[in-house]
Design brief:
Strand 3 and strand 4 form a beta hairpin. The strands form 2 sheets. This protein has a two-stranded antiparallel sheet with strand order 1-2. It has a two-stranded antiparallel sheet with strand order 3-4. The chain is built from 2 helices and 4 strands; from the N terminus they run αββββα. Helices cover 69% and strands 5% of the residues. Helix 1 runs antiparallel to helix 2. The chain is mostly helical and 193 residues long.
Length: 193
């Protein structure tokens, strides 16, 4: 009987130790399950964060590609703009030159028209009909000779026609009266402005 009691007590001790071990194991298992659950949630959170980062990275990559295209378009537009500015400047210079040539041509046309009109209007006055200078009205004689103005065709004394000017009708300077000399000088100075 006593042996049975000892065995029973030993079995109870063993049972208590085993219960303690099971209880410790359950606590340990519960702690591990909690840690595992936390790690799973943490891993899930990291995976979601990683996925968001990948998506953000893809968006940034697309944005960078778009910015590269925009930069290339900007460079092309800049080059085109510089070329247009250069073309406009060249055209403005050309227009200025054409304007200057046109003004010069207009003045030459006016001069030619005036010269042509003067030549049409000017009639060579006959020597015999002129007895006095058309400007100073002094009488012609042996000491005061008659001279034709090559511009207007009238007859003047030497003092009133002592000027020479190049005319469209003459390659070298010819005699002109004082009045025509003044008019021609004014016309030439206007055409040089």
């Amino acid at each position: 009987y006593q042996e049975c009691f000892i065995q029973k007590t030993a079995a109870k001790d063993t049972l208590m130790k085993l219960n303690d071990k099971i209880s410790d194991g359950e606590i340990h298992s519960s702690t591990i399950e909690t840690d595992l659950k936390i790690e799973r949630e943490w891993r899930q959170s990291l995976q979601e964060s990683s996925q968001r980062d990948k998506e953000a990275k893809a968006e940034l990559y697309m944005e960078v590609e778009n910015l590269k295209k925009i930069k290339e378009e900007y460079e092309a537009l800049k080059t085109s703009h510089e070329l247009l500015i250069s073309t406009v400047e060249n055209q403005e210079r050309t227009l200025e030159e054409l304007g200057a040539h046109l003004s010069e041509s207009k003045l030459k046309m006016v001069d030619l028209r005036d010269a042509s009109k003067t030549l049409r209007d000017a009639q060579w006055a006959p020597d015999k009909e002129a007895t006095n200078c058309m400007r100073c009205e002094k009488e012609f004689g042996i000491s005061r000779r008659r001279h034709h103005c090559r511009n207007c065709g009238n007859i003047f004394c030497s003092a009133c026609s002592d000027n020479t000017m190049p005319l469209p009708s003459s390659a070298r300077p010819v005699r002109v009266c004082d009045t025509c000399h003044t008019q021609l000088l004014q016309r030439y100075s206007n055409s040089e402005m």
